[in-house]
Specification:
elongated; 6-stranded antiparallel β-sheet; alpha+beta; 865 residues; single chain
Length: 865
Amino acid sequence: MHGLGNDVANFSGRDFIRRIVYPMAAVMVVAILVVTVVLVLSARQQNKLEVEASTRLATTALQVKAREVGRDLRNYTIRQDVYENISRSGNSAWAATDGNIGPNIYKDLGYELVFAVAPGNRTIYGLIDGEPKDVDALKVMPRGLRDLLNVASIQADPTTSLIKSGSDIYVVAANGILPPSIDRSNVKPRDLTMLVFAERLDQKFLDRMGRDYLLSDLKISLDRVDDAEASIPLLTQDRVFLGTISWSPPKPGEQLLRFILPPLGIALVVLAAFAVLVVRNARRSTSALEASAKTVEAYAQTLKESETRFKDVAEASSDWIWESDNDLRLVYFSTRFSDVTGLSPQAILGKTFEQFFSRDTDADGWRQLMAGSSDQRAFRDLRCAYRDANGNGRICRLAGRPIVASSGEFLGFRGTATDITEEVEAQERASHLAHHDALTGLPNRALFHERLNIALAATAEQTARVAIICLDLDHFKEVNDTLGHGAGDLLLQQLSNRLLGCVRKHDTVTRLGGDEFAIIQMGVAQPLEAEELSRKLIDVVRAPFTIEGQDLHVGVSIGIAIADATETDPERLLKNADIALYRAKQSGRATYRIFEAQMDAELQQRKALEYDLRQAVLKDELEVHYQPLIDLGKRQVAAVEALVRWRHPARGLVSPADFIPLAEETGLIVSIGEWVLETACRQVLDWQNLRVAVNLSPVQFRNRELVETVRQVLVRTGLAPERLELEITESVLINDASAALEILNGLKNLGVKIAMDDFGTGYSSLGYLNSFPFDKIKIDKSFIGDMDSKDKSGAIVKSVIGLGQSLNMVTTAEGVETPEQAEFLRQEGCDQVQGYYFSKPVTAPELSTFIERWDGARAWGDVAA
């Protein structure tokens, strides 16, 4: 019987294990597996959402860049001067000039390719990496550009696309060149000249996009990248695949798994050990009651561990969980709340929604939540603001569902909050970059036009208060050339702060590009307020700038245009301000001018003269005339001075005073000067034993290639270096004395002679004679007129001649027109003279005749003029 009882007890224990322990263990194992699968799927979903978010961000970044290229392009296609010189004239020389569509498009805007394509797909202008090139745009971009031009020709706004050229992919924008003054409906698309801007989509571009949009390890490939963690295809307008941009997105799901799976694995091991222990104890038990009690205890422990696991999952989420009562008082926060906000839940619990959260952009959703909580409806994606433990404003997105008791009573809401501050800041940065200058933080050209349109869209009385003030730094190029572009950037940043300190908060200060700035001023008494501000700006900019331990001095030229009831066109106003700015520069810089109607007419005349001058260079309308220099001691022709003249087919002989300053301003003087130099060197070979003197413009002298240019001319012409004299004025030495000394020494090393022209008209001539290697002093003709031995001019001339003798320098007097002047100079020891008394500047054949007829033994009064 006892044995039977033991058998029954043994049987009951095995039966309990089979019916209770094993099923419970299986349920728990399945539960753990389900939780594990859910966690893995959740992690994958979080990774997928992060990839989708970063993909949208990368796509948006490319779209923003495409719009930026389009906006930059449009600023050029609607310009009247671009239309006149490119569409109508096909003037590639004008386009290549810096400040038009020349190297500044590459240096300031970063576009590697620029093309102007005339009707018939004929490329009339090309700019590659800042260098003008004679290329065919359709051969540079054989796939895609033709279609883009066809589409863009029928669109008013720029059309953008991605186009592959060789192994590079470009963001390309195209638009027809057509100013606002021409009605587009009157122009056929096929008659438009198209302007194309292209920016290379290279690693530098991707690195900048990654920094701006918080994308890591951006790379570009011309093939499809199937194994990339995140990527977007690069497609043309026709959906043709060009390449792939890929990057490495954050992986919040993997972080979640690394945090959850180790505790979960430990729990599984503990549970398995516990199950083995329960089975072992059950087998040893002889009482079904003891076995049942142990099973109940094990079940309770399992439930407790399960609750702990799910709590751990909730706390490890990137969101934080909240609960409120039916009056919208916050009654619960998960511990994740403190990790994100830095706040203690106890400090917030009991406050209402309105006391902790505030509405951000979704005003309607916030109002419905505050006023309609009794509706007991779920909500999601409600954007709210709050402040963290440091008092910083942050943005979150709320989602919630009503809590309802079994009796149907509404108890409150339970939901999650997701912090989206970084996402919002990234979007705001992208918007700011699209409307502000990256270097100075000032509004850019696009935002300037928006604000100007708003200012001009007011009533006539308010419009008359609008002034456009254009500013351009004087001598800014010298800062970049001597100290580098880094110093120039620091100068522009300091300048921006000074400009902002001069205007009122409702005015707009804009950087248009390079060292060009513009201000929209809203004043009551115009133009008085614009003039007052301009004088203030001139004084502020005149103060020295401290850059890298050096004090830099620059000035500013200002042009002002005032809006009125008859002139409210933004482009025209800006153009008028530019015209006034040009007049200010002509007036000596560091000053301002207000636009007047005649300025435009004068500018058009200047442009016409500039065009004629460019044609004169191309059509060989320039001539070199020569004036003899007479040696007073030997009474012989010692040298000739080469002087450029322009024989215009309609204007006749144009005065050098009219076209030389224009040639210097446009840069044509460099090519003209080299032509004059080579022509004079070749001609003087026909006049044995004579030297030739050639004037150097300050613009030529600033060219660091001057020494090499002179060397090559001497090699090409075969002229002995000692037969060449180069004349410079004091102004070329003022800005950068050390660079000038280097160039002068280089010329001296070639063997040529150096003369200081117009001596005595500057401020530091004596100092320059001591510092620089001059061979000759030329006395300015202003001291020669009405000169005698008793007046001041005579005394000055005597002093200069004596100075030249003491320094062992040749002295030459200019402007000699009477025999008395020549005799006075001879008696005082002057070496050479030139002037109308002997000969005016004449052509080479005429001078040859003069040399043949010259008789040095004849009396001064008998010399033929």
